[in-house]
């Protein structure tokens, strides 16, 4: 069965490759995408599963109370949601839950810039006294302006956190929209998809 986003043969520059695209490149590429996205979600969730109450204070701080309920739910969704996406089992619901969680992560990064919580005045003073702890490039980026460019510049940590959150949200949302694909438990064993 071809992947759901195959291109009509007459629109291809090299029409003889249509079978290769439809029956190999697209389904295997989609499988690889699902394994990477789901695998990294599961890897990120491993620490949370090992200590499901660890995020209690954080989830309450961002408005999800009680923490004793939402912290284990987050752990479950990260770890098992990632595994479900990897294997293509209940793919759309698992990916949709992951996308929502990641959208909240993006909101958190955008609404709460790292700022002083990441580079304190005491930390910068310590680095100024112990410059040998930094490379010359690190000294230029951190010590010249107290870390402002490091945090907020065009290659800053803040922007990278926001981009990463958007990237992962988009990956999960795309999987939620398109489902598990040809090589998924949903399609191969259950013969049904959400």
From TrEMBL:
It is found in: Cell membrane. It holds the Pfam family DoxX. Belongs to the DoxX family. One of its GO terms (cellular component) is plasma membrane. This is DoxX family protein. The chain crosses the membrane at residues 12-33, 53-76, 83-108, 166-185. It comes from the Bacteria. It is a multi-pass membrane protein. Keywords: Cell membrane, Membrane, Transmembrane, Transmembrane helix.
């Amino acid at each position: 069965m071809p992947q759901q986003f195959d291109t009509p043969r007459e629109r291809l520059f090299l029409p003889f490759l249509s079978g290769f695209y439809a029956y190999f490149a697209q389904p295997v590429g989609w499988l690889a995408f699902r394994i990477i996205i789901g695998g990294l979600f599961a890897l990120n969730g491993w620490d949370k599963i090992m200590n499901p109450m660890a995020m209690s204070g954080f989830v309450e701080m961002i408005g999800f109370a009680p923490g004793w309920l939402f912290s284990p739910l987050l752990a479950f969704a990260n770890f098992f949601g990632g595994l479900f996406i990897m294997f293509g089992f209940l793919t759309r619901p698992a990916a949709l839950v992951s996308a929502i969680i990641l959208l909240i992560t993006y909101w958190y990064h955008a609404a709460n810039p790292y700022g002083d919580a990441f580079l304190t005045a005491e930390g910068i003073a310590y680095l100024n006294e112990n410059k040998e702890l930094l490379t010359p490039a690190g000294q230029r980026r951190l010590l010249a302006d107290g870390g402002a460019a490091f945090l907020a510049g065009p290659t800053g940590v803040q922007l990278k956190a926001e981009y990463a959150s958007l990237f992962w949200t988009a990956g999960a949302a795309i999987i939620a929209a398109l489902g598990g694909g040809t090589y998924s438990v949903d399609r191969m064993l259950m013969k049904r998809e959400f």
